[in-house]
Structure formats: structure tokens, C-alpha cells
Amino acid sequence: MSDYLNDNPNVVEENDLPSRKVSEDDQLLMGSVGSQTCLKKKRLLLKIDNSGQSSVQQAVELLDKMLLLNSAPELTSDEESVEETDGESLEQTNEEWEPVDAQEIYDLTAHISDPEHPLSLGQLSIVNLEDIEVHDDGDYNKMAEVIIRITPTITHCSLATLIGLGIRVRLERALPPRYRFTILLKKGSHTSENQVNKQLNDKERVAAACENEQLLGVVSKMLSTCK
Amino acid sequence: MADGANGAVGSLVVAFIANDTVNDAKAQEVAEQLAEMVGAEAKLLDIVLGLKGSITSEDSGTRRKALNCLSSVLACLDSDKLPRNEIEVMCQFYNSKLDDELLALETLSGFRSLCRMVCVTGQQVSALMKWLTDEYVPSRYLAAVRFVPFQILDGIYHNKFKDGQIVNGKLTEQFVQAYINVASGEKDPRNLLLSFQLNERISTSLPAANSHRQELFDILFSYFPITFRPPKNDPYKIANVDLKLALRSALSAAPMFAQDAFGNLVDKLSASSPTVKQDTLLTLKRCIENFGGQACADDWLPIWKALKFEVMHSVDDNDDSLALAKVTPPNAQKEDESTINNYQTALDVIRTLSRVLQQFNDKVFDTFFTHALEDLKPNFDLGKSLKQSCAIFSAIGSSNKATFDKTIESVLPLFLVNTTEVPKLKLLLMNLSFFLGSYIQVFGETQADQHAVEVPDNKLASYKDEILMILGMALTGNSKIEVTVRTLSVIQFTKLIKMKGYLTDEEIALIVQYLTETILTDNNKNIYFACLEGLKVISEFYEQLVYSVSLKQMLDLLPNSFNGLPEFHNGEYITIETILKIILDFTTSRHILVKESIVALCSKLLDVVVRDAARSSDYCFLLLSTLLSLYDNNIVLMTPETLVSIKKLVEPVLFQILEMKDDKSVIGDDYNFPLFSTLFYFINLKGVDDTQLQRYTDVLIKEYKILEKYPCRYIMPYVKILSALDKTCVFEQSGEVFHRTVELLRADGNIPQVEKVGYLEFLMVLTNKWLSDDEIEREMDLELHSDINLKILTWVGKGLVMRSSKLGPKILKQFIELLSDKQSGALVSKLFEVFVIDINTMKRYKGCGTANNVKALYKQKFFSDIFKTLVALYRSNADMDIKCNCLTALSMVLKHTPSQLIEPFMNDLLPMLLQALEMPNSEVRVSSLETLSDVTEKFHQLITEHTSTLIPLLLKLVVPGTHNNAAVRLMSLKLLEVIAAVVPLNYCLEFKEQVIVGLLKPLSDKKRIIRKQSIDTRQVYFELGQVPFE
Predict the structure, then answer these.
(1) What strands, in cross-sheet order, belong to the sheet with A127-135?
(2) N or C: at which end does chain B have fewer Cβ atoms within 10 angstroms?
């Protein structure tokens, strides 16, 4: 609503950035323990009271606890408890797998600030949800790939390399090593597209850049707004 | 006799001189003694005689002390003590000392005391004044000395000029001249404060001031805008704001300053510092208020220009808040002085100016208004700076009825034109908001008890239909995507309601209908909250209306089965959850609404149970939850009468449901039935007499046979009723009932869970409220270690612990011993949770009497009772199982104990918490992590010592495993992040690499939220020790 935004009609409001359309219910339910019925009831409750702290919620939790507590105690043999301590393998848990998708990559990168504006890459539409590709079949032993195409604000943007570096550093820190990322300029969005692309995906040059304390400082500043 | 007095005077004088500058308190005491003697047994002259030698001494120190003695005595004298002739002598004496610059402070102090004497003559004052004007050079003296002349002037003013008793013109003339000389060039804050006050008095009450107008003004304005930062140990405790206010008050004191003040202040408005601007604006406002209409009529043009410039070119801090945030009462923001909002202040000044002008003369105001209109009208045509222009006009309009009418008449037609273009509509709504605000400022806000008040005819009334139409169209005629326009419309509707006497009841009903439709059909959060706020505001004033138009409609929408969504209108569907949520949200603390909702929802519950369709269990759960929340949110405010009247309507319905024994959705549902039972608790919480206990006992024990051979879940409603009743009720059968319950529990090994919990809780309530320690001891068997007996003991123990009975610790001791028992240890460790678990129906609601015996600090007592023994047991045992039991018991207790109660035990506790992290039980781990998080936030030092143990432990917990459930992983990651923030860098840094590598695995966690947290935590460690970027 400020005049500034009206002067730059291309800027997207922070709240209007594409985001995952799930309720926060699951987050509120994180960390709670209990039976499946209890969880189901709580989910229902959240629909009428979003605080997650209502007295009914407490009552249901309490009840669940009482019912569990009064049932026969679970018997764990000694051997079992010794063997268990280093449960390493990831597959053993029966939790539901939430895949890494384009939205997740977008959330990681869209809040990086632009080096010269007080705005984020998402707001300036430098990073766009539809320009992110993720190829991952969820297998921990296979490689996965992420491709991001960025759109600089102007075709001769001199900071395109810096923006690309920021995105790369962010992803390298945030994704497991089995991921490979390619950061490209969107076709026709920059005058020296090929040069920049080459520079951004050259491992040696990225590594060298990250050894430059001052440059890393600038990148840190860009990353400081990440959510 | 005289000799004796002389002797006493002499020795006191010597005592004073000895103590002066050495022990000032003592010296002061002596001076008071001397002052008491003066007029009684001694004369002032005696003191002078006593000082004779020292007062003419060559040594300046001695001279000073002697004179100080005299002045101090004078200061202690009452103002009517000294006769005329003595004053004359004293004046002459002090006059002779005026040349002695080293004695200035003492001499002037002497004069200060003399000037407040009743009998001092004009001549004497005049002589002193002449000296102050001609001979006194302030710059030669220190601040402390310079203070005295101000006090002298102050004294003279009070003594001679106060209450209009002006003696002669010459004297006041001299007084003003003396002041001008004394005050020129002053810098000390304490002196300035007094100087400003004097100036104000002079300019307001002495006619002589007029001829010195310019000088007096210059003395003041040379300090404007004053800034002063008090030194650290300022003895006078003068704050910047004191000076600021004194100066402001002096500057705005008299209309004779008007010309100079307005001109200079307008110049100062161009300052760039916001603080200076703020000060200038506030001073300007004060001046406008004080100088009166004539002065403003002469000078309004430059002031208007400056203010307009200020409003047009300064940015309003709370840009969005004005338009979109909740409608706050108009005065709320202004009160807070700490935040500078020059935009708002400038508008305020405009408002004051227009009020003063209008009150002075209609013609002048008209000229002013026409000028303003000419100035700003082009903005409306060009659509430029509309917001500021409207803000200015609404400020002018909010002065009084006359200015309001004038403004509305001339300005509203400039922009109030309905449009379908969304951006234009948005602007229109935002601009309109200003003028609705003006209305509230002029005519007041709607009050709950007097909404039918007549408000004088005003120009806005004729625009009512148009405004309602525009708002209505903005809300209903736009697509749902236009959130801003629709939210604005809802906000303006709410504002209309707040405008006293503006709307008729039919119009309000129309608005309620609009808001109800919107809140039911719109999913957007902003709109939801705007409508909610609107409905709340309306129910504050028109509760009955809201009930009949809005709530009733929503309640009627609820279907009798969960299948299919209730249709609202035009084919729009609403979920049941939405309706219930809205009911819960907007009925809060409104008696009629709460009552009607409870009654209607209860009968709805009956309908649903009777129908018994698919998924009715879920539907009943929602209804029950809503009912309980309604009670829980409002019970404190509900009167006993309301509660009883609800009970009358609701109880028969509840019993009707109880009658349907085969029902699956409430009676047969393990979760719904306890909630349903809790309803019995709430209906009996207030205003219930003693006969109820017997009545319920008859019904439940005799008719429903809850204590016969077979366990019956109807024990639950009975327990809840007993919890609600006051503990003073007589319950004769309590002993017998207790016995029968214990028998019942012991007899049947396979009681279903819900029933078992019901009976156990029943024992707890009985123990807590009615049974004596002896009775209980007779019934209990501490040696029997069967599962059921242990549980009985636990619950009875809980009842005892809560009322801090002596029997409680006995049971606890037994339980701690049982922790090392191979067979029952594991169960017992878990049972510890029961002791401290909070049961809702045992909590105390404010204003509901003392239903239960719950001591305020029982948890603290409980914790300190068991903690030492637990730790000892833990340390003395090598057996891992027993250690594990101890930790489990401890963490179960910790989960329900507020962290401040744990603090005193921290040093012993922390090592145990760390070991609990390795226990093969995720609940134990969660509980330990919870406590550790608290500790980390509060005890940086303590946690720093354990960093090297804690971090590797946490890194083991962040990877998935049987006992590392999502909660454990998430909390460990969060804790790692907190550690990096609170533990000193040099401790953390050595773990940097380890953590970064250790968090690689969680980056591929299955849960997204955990991946997110690992990324955040990892980022924090990446940046540890990095050079800051700015």
C-alpha cells in the first residue's frame, strides 16, 4: 500500500508469495504424543479453535493419557532396550515421507534479500516457483537434482552472479549432499547469459568465491532474511 | 538571665562554625536551635554579637562560616517572626556585605530569607532590586550562587505581588528589570526551571511586563527547543521533559507573545530533527489554545501553510494501521508520548486551530476554511495526496459540530462518488474513514446502555443512505479476491456502528446481516477477523439484535447429521466446523449470546444422538467441545443466576441423552462420554444448593446403580458433579461409597478403561473432599502390590497430596521404595505422573467458591518432598532398570511442574536430565528436552558448563530412531539452535564443525518441518564466529 510499491508495480507483496497451502494444524500437533484417535480428535478441534491450547484440548489429551496409563504396561525386555540405542537406519520409522518439492526449494530461496534492494528475491520475481525443477525419487542412495532458473530484474544486471552465488550457498547448506543443483539464467533474460551460467556452475570458481571473507560476508547478509 | 541566654547563643554559634562544611546536618540542627531561641530568650542581634569577631575576620573562610551561620538561622525563622526594625538592621548589614564577592552565596541567602518576611518594606526590596539590576553580574558566579537571586525574586513575587495585590507600579517595573538581568544568559537546568516559572508569572500577572515583552520573550525563545541530558547522579532529578514543559508553558503563557511566538515557531517547523519538530508542534498547539481567537485570527495564514506542508511531506508512521488495522478508539494513539508521530500531531494542531478560530468568530473560520479548501481542492481533482488532504479536513471537521458540518458539506461531495473501479473504491473507503472518525470525535462513541441517544442534526446524516449503499456494494458486489476492499468495507461498517446515534436499529440489523453472511462464506483470514471484530463491537451495544439476526441464523444452520454440508444461500456451502468456530469466537463474554448458544447446542446434541447417523460421533465431539469451550471461556463472568437458568434448560436434555444407553456416539464413545460428563460439572459450578448432592446421589446410585456388581460408566457424570459441588456440602454416605468403590475395583480385574478411570477419579474426589485421614488409612492396604491396588493408592494419594494431608508423604515414601521393585517398578514410575497431572474439573475458577481442596503450592511441596529421595535412590543404585525408573518418574513429574519451582534444585537435576536423554523412552526424552530448553534460556552459566556433554547427546537425538520420534528430533534441533545463541562463542566454536556435519542427516528427514529446523540450526552454526557483515 505504500507509495513505493505503487512506483514499482512488479514487486510482489511479501504475503502474496506462493506458499504451501497447508494449514498450520500439523505444526501445532507436532510434539504431541498419544494415540491415533486422540490425534484425530485434536485435528477436529483445531478446526473450531485454532489456539491449540483450549481447555477441551487439554481435556482430550488428559483423557488419552489416562486411558493409556491404565492399560497394561508395555513390556520391554532388557535386550531390546540395549540394542535399540543407535537406531540409525532411516527406513525403519514408519512416518510418512514428505517429498522435497519445488515449493520447498522456493521457500528456501525466495526470502534471500536482493543485494541492492531491501526486497527479497521472491518479491522481485527473480526466483519463481514455476522455474524450479526437482528430480528426486526419494531414494537415499541415488542422486537428486534441482534446477533453478533465475530472472534478473534487468538484462544487464551486474549482480546476477552474486545472486546466483547466494542461492547456491543457501542450497548447499540446506540440502543433503546427494543433491546436485544447476542455477541458470532464464533464457533471454540477460545479455551475457552464457558467461554467467558458466561462472555459476563452475565448482572451482564457487569454492574460490566462498573463501573470500568479504564476499561471504555479503552472502551472509543476503541470507540473513531467510525464513 | 540574659547572660545565660547569651552564653547559650555563644556556644551554639561556636558549635555551628565548628560543624559547618564538616557536618552539615549537625550544623543545620544547631541553626534550628538558634532560630528557636530568637524571639524567645535571645535576639537576632545576640547572634550577630556572638559572631562579631569572626564576621570581620581577615580569613575569608572564617568570615564565610560566620555569615553562613547568620543566614542559616534566618532561613529557619518563620516569616512573621522578625519585626520591622530588625529587618531594617539586617538589610543594612547584608547590604554592607554585598561587595564581598567571596561571601555572595551567604549574603544572597540572607536576602532570600529577608525577602519572604512579612514586614519587609517596599523600599528595602526596591534597593535590593536595584542592586540586582545594576550591580549583579550573573556570569561572575557559580550556578549554585546564581540560583539564589531566582529564589529571591520568587520570594518577592509571592510576598508582594501574588493575588493581584500590586503595591506600586515602580516596584513591579524594577522587579521585571531585575528578572531580566538575573535570567539573561542562564544555563543551569535548575535555575532555568525557576526562571521559566518566574517568566510565566511575570508575563501573566504583572502589567509592567508589557513594556518588556520583547526581552522576556527573547529570554525564553533563546532556549527553544530545549534539550538536556541529566548527568548520571543528578541531585536535583530534573528531566528533559520538565524543562521542556516549563518552557512550553512559559512561551504560551500570555497573548502578548503571540506575534513573536507564532513567527518563530513556524520558522522552527522547518527543522529536520523529528524531536524538535514534535516539540515545536506541541508548543504551537499550546500557544494556539492559550493566546485566544484574536491572536490566531491575525496569524493563521503562515501557521496553516507550515502545518499543511508538514502533513503533506511527512510520512505517517502507521500508514496501514489507519486503513486496515482494527478500529481503535481515536484517543488511544495520542496518549503515548514516547512515540513521536509528527504527522498525527500536526493534524492535531490543525484541529485545535480550527476550533479556536471557529469559537472566536464564524467569519474568520469561514475565511480560513475557504482558503484551505482552495488550497487542497486540486488534490481531489488530480487524485494526488488524497490521504493527507482528507486527514487534514477530517482534523478540521473533528473540532466541533460547526466545523464538522462545514467540512462534510464542502468536502464529502468532492470524493464520495460510487465507482466500480477497485483502486478508486479502495481510496474512497480509506478517505471516508477519516470523516467517520471525525464524527466520533465530535459526537462521541456509542455506549452500551444508551444507544438510542439523539444526536443533533448534522450534515453527515443526509449522506447515510449513500454511504450504506457504497459500503454494501463494496462488500457484496466484488469478487472474493478483492480482500482489501471488502475488509475496508467491513471496517467502515464497524465504525458506523460506533458512531453515536447515527444509525437506526433497522440499519444496524442490516449491517449485522451483511457481516454474518460475509463471515460465514469467506475464508480469508483478514476478512474473518474484521467481521469478527465488527460482530463483537455490535454485540457490545446491541446484543439482543445480534442474537436474533445473526446467532439464531447460525444455530439454525447446523444440520442434524454430519453428512452433507449445510447450505447457506445461493448454493454456498459452509462447514459445520466453521459455524461452530464463529459461534465460539464471537459470543465471548456476552451473556445472552453464550446462554442461547449453550441451550441451542445442547438440544442439537440430542437431535444428533437421536438420529444416530454415520459419523455422528465426530459431530457430537465437535458439539461437546464447543459447549465446553463456551463454558470454560465464560464461566468466570457468568452470574450464578444465569448459570442456574441455563441449568434448568440444559439438565433435562442431558438426562434424556443419558437415558439412551445403547447410543454409540456419546454414551458409548470413550472420548465423547467424559466430555459429556464434564458438562454436568459446569452446570453445577455456581448457584447450587446443598440439596443437589442428595438428589444426584439418589438418581445415580439408586436408579442407575453405578456402585452395584457391574462397573458402569455413569460414574463419570457423578464424579464431575461431586467435583463441582462445594466441599462444605455434607455427604453422609461418603465412607460407605468409598468402601464399595474400592471393593468394586478390586473384585473385577477387567474393568474397561473409561470406567476404571471414572472410579479412580471418584476415589480421588472423595479423598480430597470428604474423607478423613483415619478413614482412608483404614481402607488402604499399602502392602498389596497388585496393579489395581497400586492405582487405587496413586489416585487416593493424589487427593491427599492436593490437600497437603499428612498421609500423603507416607504413600509417596512407599511409592519411591517400589521404584526399585523389579516387578512393579516400571508401572510405579509411570504412575508418578498422576500425582501432579492437572485435572480440569479440579481447578479453581475465579468467583466459583472453593469447590475442592487444592492447595496453591502443593506441587512445590510435592516436588521438594520427593526430589531428594529420588536423587538418593538414583545415586545409590547401580542397576540400570532402577535408574531408569527413577528418571522416568522424575521426568513424568517434571512435565507437569512449572519451571520456576524446579529452579532451586537445578544443580542436582541437570546431570539427571542429561542422562534421561539416553533413556529408551521418547516421552522421557521429550520431557527432559523440555526442561533442558527452559534451563538453557534461563541459566546460561550452568548450561555452558555442560555444553561438551550436551551437544554430542543432542546430535544423537536428531536422527530418526525408535525412541527419537518427530518431537524429540525437532526439540533437539531447536535446543541446538538456542545453545548457539546463549553459550559464549569460545565454548561453542569448537563444536561448529561437529554440529554442521552432524546435521547432514536430518537434512533428509522425512518430515518437512524437521528439515526446516535443521536448515535453520545449521545456518546458525555456519555463521558462528564469522566476521559480521556490517
Answers:
(1) A127-135, A144-150, A179-185
(2) C
Nearest-CA distance A81 → chain B (Å) = 6
Better pLDDT: B888 or A149: A149
Residues in a beta bridge with B629: none
**Do A174 and B1015 lie within an 8 Å CB cutoff?**
yes
In the predicted model, what is the mean pLDDT of residues B583-609? 85
Q: With CB atoms and an 8 Å threshold, state whether A87 touches B962.
A: yes
Which grid coordinates belong to B163? 493575588
Chain B residues inside the 8 Å CB shell of A52: none
Q: Report the residue from B964, B967, B1015 with minimal CB separation from A30.
A: B967
> Per-residue b/e over B947-967, b at no fewer than 16 CB within 10 Å?
beebbeebbbbbbbbbbbbbb
- CA B729 to chain A, closest CA, distance in angstroms equals 26
Nearest C-alpha in A relative to B1001: A176
Domain(s) labelled CATH 3.30.300.130 in chain A stretch across 100-223
Q: How far apart are CA B796 and CA B742, in angstroms?
A: 11
Place of cell 472566536: B360
Which pTM value belongs to this model? 0.70
Amino acid letter for position B391 = A
Mark yes or no for CB contact B838/A62 under 8 Å: yes
B567-573: long-range contacts at Cβ-Cβ below 8 A with a sequence spacing of 24 or more?
Answer: B568/B517, B568/B520, B568/B521, B569/B517, B572/B521
B923 to chain A, minimum CA–CA distance in Å?
8
CB burial class (10 A; 0-12, 13-18, 19+) of residue B1009?
middle
**Length of chain B (residues):** 1030
Residue of chain A minimizing CA distance to B880: A78
Q: What is the 3-state secondary structure (H, E, C) of B513-560?
A: HHHHHHHHHCCCHHHHHHHHHHHHHHHHHCHHHHHHHHHHHHHHHCCC
Domain boundaries, chain B: 121-251, 254-415, 438-558, 898-1030
What confidence score (pLDDT) does residue A146 get?
92
- Within 8 A of A169 by CB-CB distance, chain B residues are none
Pairing of strands A127-135, A179-185: unpaired
pLDDT digits (tens, 9 = 90+) for B155-185: 888 887 766 555 567 788 888 888 888 888 8
Three-state SS string across B109-151, please?
HHHHHHHCCCCCCHHHHHHHHHHHHHCCCHHHCCHHHHHHHHH
Which of B701, B611, B627, B709 minimizes the C-alpha distance to B664?
B611
A44 closest CB neighbour out of B618, B791, B1001: B618
Name which of B881, B963, B970 is nearest A84 (Cβ-Cβ).
B963
Is it the case that residue A52 has pLDDT exceeding 80?
no
3-state secondary structure B727-762: CCCCCCCHHHHHHHHHHHHHHCCCCCHHHHHHHHHH
The CATH number of B898-1030 is 1.25.10.10
Residues of chain B with Cβ-Cβ distance to A55 below 8 Å are 628-629, 632, 840
Tell me which residue of B562, B570, B566, B590 sits closest to B579, measured CA to CA: B566
List chain A residues with CB under 8 Å of B1009. Answer: 26-27, 30
Model pLDDT, residue A15: 66
* DSSP 8-state secondary structure symbol assigned to residue B499: B
Fold of A100-223: GMP Synthetase; Chain A, domain 3 (3.30.300)
CA nearest B580 in A: which residue?
Answer: A48
A67 vs B629, B753, B920: nearest CB: B753
Does the CB of A71 have a partner CB in chain B at under 8 Å? yes
| Residue of chain B nearest A214, judged by CA positions | B1029
Q: Which residues pair with A180 in a beta bridge?
A: A145
Mean pLDDT of chain B: 82
Q: Give A41→chain B minimum CA distance, Å.
A: 8
Assembly ipTM:
0.81
